[in-house]
């Protein structure tokens, strides 16, 4: 299902979006350049075929200009939620309502599929993003440190 707002269309991701998504990732964080277009394409395919995750993209003039990745999860201490795993809009197109369209579509998807809410993490330095979330009704709950252990 796609929805229009002016010249931007919100739709589900396709494997052929790999090049644009790769560019968005690198635009957001240049260190992501090591995760190639081909790897992005494979991840899109895996997410679509092996998970309950959903990824919505914003498209303008045939190009993906933003995306949001939601991953449903179950907890033993809370109702079901959707976790935002990735959310980026092309740098020069920010503050034009595209992010609002994307997160609004994910919120509607979550409601339509019986989830109780959305959770997301945002780096402490991203104060403009924090204002965006707060203006949409998101509430700051806690600071935390993220840990990762890689296998290899």
TrEMBL record:
<feature type="domain" description="N-acetyltransferase">
    <location>
        <begin position="8"/>
        <end position="152"/>
    </location>
</feature>
<dbReference type="GO" id="GO:0016747">
    <property type="term" value="F:acyltransferase activity, transferring groups other than amino-acyl groups"/>
</dbReference>
<dbReference type="InterPro" id="IPR000182">
    <property type="entry name" value="GNAT_dom"/>
</dbReference>
<dbReference type="Pfam" id="PF00583">
    <property type="entry name" value="Acetyltransf_1"/>
</dbReference>
<dbReference type="InterPro" id="IPR016181">
    <property type="entry name" value="Acyl_CoA_acyltransferase"/>
</dbReference>
<protein>
    <submittedName>
        <fullName>N-acetyltransferase</fullName>
    </submittedName>
</protein>
């Amino acid at each position: 299902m796609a929805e229009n707002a002016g010249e931007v269309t919100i739709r589900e991701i396709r494997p052929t979006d790999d090049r644009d998504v790769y560019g968005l990732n690198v635009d957001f964080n240049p260190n992501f350049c090591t995760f190639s277009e081909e790897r992005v394409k494979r991840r899109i395919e895996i997410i679509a075929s092996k998970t309950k995750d959903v990824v919505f993209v914003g498209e303008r003039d045939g190009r993906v200009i933003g995306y949001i990745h939601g991953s449903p999860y179950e907890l033993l201490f809370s109702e079901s939620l959707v976790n935002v795993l990735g959310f980026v809009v092309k740098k020069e197109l920010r503050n034009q309502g595209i992010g609002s369209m994307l997160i609004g579509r994910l919120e509607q998807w979550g409601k339509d599929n019986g989830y109780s809410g959305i959770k997301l993490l945002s780096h402490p330095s991203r104060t403009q993003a924090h204002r965006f979330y707060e203006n949409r009704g998101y509430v700051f709950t806690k600071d935390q440190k993220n840990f990762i252990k890689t296998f290899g």
